[in-house]
Design goal:
By secondary structure, the protein is α+β, with helices and mostly antiparallel strands. It has eight helices and seven strands, in the order ααβββαββαααααββ. The structure holds adenosine-5'-triphosphate and magnesium ion.
């Protein structure tokens, strides 16, 4: 039996619950609606997708909210398949197309432990020591921290540092393979909100990229 075969049953259950509670897949969605429905579900939201999960489930449902062109979602599924071909799939949360609901495609993904703040903090502290060393600064001095915070936020904005931190978590060999894959398929927009933990391993949960004409 496929490792993820129960995912489709659980994902469908989530969609049926949402639809039964008045969720309109064609209407621009406000995250506040989830609270109003008072359902025992977790949810996240990005610029282009709502993500919903049952607290007992190992999967999340991803619903595109970027009306019009939704190629970025199917692109993510295709990228996962390409990662499998390269033996790199463990670095990407498994995903697939769950099915069509009211005429719109919805996606299913392995659930990770996601907390944007954790990855922001880790990325922040990760470079501090080398920053001080390169500039001959005392890491215990408040003035060093202040200098770093200016430098960090300037640098951090382009997400490069988050990707560097992510890659630094693997051996040199794996890291260069993952980097080559990311470059090859031009996966952009890897920020602290687009990764999570599977056990102790950081894994990408949004590798659809950004800028797909939406
Ligand atoms: N597999 C997952 N497991 C748990 N939580 C997830 C998962 N995928 C996404 N999330 C949560 O939902 C949020 C939105 O999901 P996602 O990043 O896929 O949406 P997006 O609209 O494409 O984001 P962006 O704004 O980065 O383009 C994430 O930041 C994360 O907090
Ligand atoms: Mg995202």
């Amino acid at each position: 039996m496929d490792r993820f075969s129960d995912a489709f049953i659980e994902g469908d259950k989530i969609m049926q619950t949402l639809l039964a509670n008045g969720f309109n897949i064609h209407k621009p969605f406000s995250i506040g609606e989830m609270n109003i429905w008072n359902m025992d579900m977790g949810y996240g939201c990005g610029a282009s997708r709502i993500v919903v999960w049952d607290n007992d489930s190992d999967y999340v449902v991803k619903i595109p909210i970027c009306y019009g062109d939704e190629r970025y979602c199917i692109h993510e599924v295709e990228l996962y398949e390409k990662a499998v071909e390269c033996g790199l799939e463990s670095h990407f949360a498994w995903c697939d197309c769950l099915g069509e609901y009211d005429g719109r495609n919805v996606y299913i993904m392995e659930r990770l432990d996601c907390n944007e703040n954790t990855f922001e903090d880790l990325t922040y502290t990760w470079r501090y020591e080398s920053y001080c060393e390169e500039r001959n600064l005392d890491p215990d001095e408040e003035s060093s921290r202040q200098k770093y915070s200016h430098y960090f936020w300037d640098f951090y904005c382009d997400d490069d540092l988050v990707l560097e931190w992510f890659l630094s978590q693997f051996s040199e060999k794996i890291s260069s393979q993952v980097r080559a894959f990311i470059d090859r398929w031009q996966i952009n927009d890897i920020h602290a909100g687009n990764m999570g933990y599977r056990g102790s391993q950081p894994v990408l949960c949004d590798y659809a990229g950004f800028g797909w004409s939406c």
